[in-house]
Design goal:
By secondary structure, this protein is of the alpha+beta class. The protein contains ten helices and 54 strands.
Amino acid sequence: MAAAQRLRDCSRRALLCFVLVAAWEAASGQIRYVIPEEMERGSFVGNLAKDLGLDLKELSDGGVSIVTRGRTHYFALNDKSGHLNTLERLDREKLCGHVEQCLLNCEVILEEKMEIYALQVEITDINDNAPSFQEEEMELTISEAKAQGSRFRLEEAQDPDLGVNSLQGYQLSSSNHFSLDVQTAAEGAKYPELVLEKSLDRELQAVHDLILTATDGGDPVRSGTTQIRVVVLDANDNAPVFSQPLYEVTLMENVPQGATVVTVKATDLDEGINKEIKYSFGKTKNKLSHLFRLEDRTGEITLAEDLDYEESKHYQFEIEAHDGGDLVDLAKVVIAISDVNDNSPEMTVRSLIRSVPEDSPPGTVIALLNVHDQDSGENGEVTCSIPSSLPFQLKKSFENYYSLVTDRALDREQEAAYNITVTATDHGAPPLSTSATISLQILDTNDNPPRFEQAAYTGYVRENNPRGASILSLQASDPDWGENARVTYSLLLPLLPGGEGSESPVSSSISIHSESGAVYALRSFDYEQLRELRFQVQAQDGGSPPLSTNVSVTLWILDQNDNSPEILYPASRSDGSTGVELAPRSSEPGYLVTKVVAVDADSGQNAWLSYQLLKATEPGLFRVGLQSGEIRTARSVLDKDALKQSLVVLVKDNGQPPLSASVSVTVVLADSLPQILSELSSLSASAAAAAGGGGGAEPQPGLTLYLGIAVASVSGLFFSFLLGLLALRLRRWRNSPLLESGASGNFSGVPVSQFVGIDGVRAFLHSYSQEASLTAGSRKSQLHFPQPNYSNTLSSQKSCDLLYIGRCPVKTTPCFPTSFLLFGHFLIITVVYRDLILPEN
């Protein structure tokens, strides 16, 4: 019989092992399995990989984890098959006690996808426990005076199974005096009562032995027995009676030890020893006797240990009141425990990313947090928060799970790392909180181009600088990190029309150090050739892709005093001589003789020129304007003053040190042209005598003869032409109306453009205004200089060209240049004859 029962038990257990109920709840993301208790270790619970739609490769890579609240793990995931298996034998009664529905909750976390699924496994009951009594034998003392129908409460049997597998009924062995009546309490528990069916007689039978059997409703049915020993006592008419059959008390879980829970009270109407009452715990568990303390004389129940609402929410037990005659009354005590907020929230970081790039989009998941509070009600409701100033946000993803995500764009340059303090606070009074700090590093991306310290740069370098000299230094900074912040510099060369063969002046003039940004000169600059150099410099970082910034640079070449003044007028010939300037002897002080014109290729104060008379034939006769360079008479010309005055004018700039140049100016003092010719002839003769006396070389006779013949021939032809032309002109003048009216012909403004003297000096006479007149009817043309025109400028009137024969372009009076030509040619012949032919003879 027992073997068949065990076989049926094993068959049922094997069948239940393969019963699996998997229910997907898409709205909540929950997976549920149902398995029976007492399954062997490693038993199959469910195909988790299939139910989640996971690839076995994800399992083998360790991307799925199962988190169980608490320290004990009951299930494990087989990464090869994807099956969920048990880690140990599960005892529902041990795990859940008398809870009707035994649920084990855990979470399945997909690390790669940052997804969470709730996993719920319900442990169903099997009839693995038989009803049992706390004691194998119980003893009742009943007075023989008890009336028929009296009831006596018996010890209840305990069966940790649930439902039909739990205690279902009691049976009593056959007896003539007693019967069994099963009562059902308000909470549904069944307890047996012994009913006296027939009066007892101690003298006939002092002890009655009964067997009480408790059975459950399982298949097979399990049972437990206890022996009841009834001792018949002498009559005790009145039993103790409690003031109330049920004592209900509510305690806060933080009640201190030693506090009074409740005081029970029973009374007995008997006298003497039968009235004395003693209190004791009824048939209860040992744990309660340790948790509560009962004063047997007073009935005061005190707290012996600390209460914990999370461990048990209520307690119930019985108190017996015994009188001196061993009569008993029972009262039930029910203690409800009220929760207090004595548990801080628990926070666990399930998944965490230590670093994110700064260009991560908003909503990037940083961490996955789980919070739990063992308290109940509002004391167990938890809210998570982070400082509002941080660029992050907490989102409740699933039940007690929170996702820490980025709320806005991150910027490593503003904040390179964050210590995010997450605070979990319950709703108790006062509230309790728990904090956890998450450290997050922000990785740099190349999102900042280099920035120059200035919007534009200006540099200065003096000309004649040495090659390779440092001109200026450019500095650009990049707030990025690492290679993204490494800045290199380069020149941006302008495109030239010449194409690839052309070379930019920038590239041949300057270079830039790619690392330091220092600009160097590749050549020596010349301010007179190049005064300004404009170019652009590019600063580029080392990111990928690189970012760059351009800046304009202007390089100014500073002048140095490296150019001496250059004299433009009077100009020197190859032999070092200059022209001759004319000044009338009748000149008054301040008469403008000529002007020295000079320029300096430098600039600024290096080009400020000053003039001074360095040397003069007659000191004090002339002066030079310090700034203008004008040579004027300082006093009137005296008779003793030489005809030819040699002046040396020094032109000096204002540089440091100053540079200078000098020029020699020859000034001839004369009022008329014959006087000039006479003086020049004497000067020439003196020069020739000095040359002869000095042992100069004698001219060759043949060359002199040929030259004399050539001059004589040309002069004869020239004079014949001039005489004929002169006769023609005189005839026309006689017939002209101007001659009849007695008006005299005037010509003015006849400048001598070039006059070649004996010493070969070139004289510029165009600076002066001269007038000549010819009296009608006179046989000889007389040329004379009128009074000088004291002018402060070097202006002259328009004059006729010496080679122009006819009327002047403006006036109708004939200019008569023929006499000038005749006289000039005569002068040339005379000079040549005197200087060449006479010495030869």
